[in-house]
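User: Hey, my collaborator sent me this sequence without any context and asked if I could get a structure. I don't really work with proteins. Can you help?
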Amino acid sequence: MQTGWFDVPVKVAAQQPNAVQSVANARDAADFLLHRWPREWGRQHYAARSACLAVLKGTREPTLAREAFAAAAREADILKEDLEMAENQDLPFDRVVTVSDPVGRVEIGSARQARDYLQSADWPSGGNQEDALNTAQAALDGLLSASDARDRFIEAAQQAGVLIFE
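Assistant: No problem. I've predicted the 3D structure and written it out in structure-token form, which is a compact way to encode the shape of the chain:
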């Protein structure tokens, strides 16, 4: 079983007052989600558990678990630093796109999330994964807009038959 190290740890509120915990890999994220989660389990919590499990099984990249864990922490209002957005290299979509994935539903809310998901996804045939990936990267490079990346991601997801909501 993999550990699934994150490129940048996710900082969340710990159980002690004013304490911050750094979660640096999928194994620690799964443990935190199952044993130390301070709130009621929401939709993002369940998605994060599935993502962590997929990373631990070796079927997904750690980036997916990191993003899902950060989204769950944001949903539970325990995210201390949203490092991903702080990098100023992400372009949020105006609306989240939801796709069907072997580990469950995955919500894609930005050009970076689209790029990272497309890099690690087992994309079905019939969807132009490479074109959507290139468009997301071009948006991150400042050559296209977030709406261009979102539109191309939706088009590829429709072609692949994995689009749930746009």
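In plain terms: Residues 89-165 form one domain. You can pass these tokens on to your collaborator as they are.
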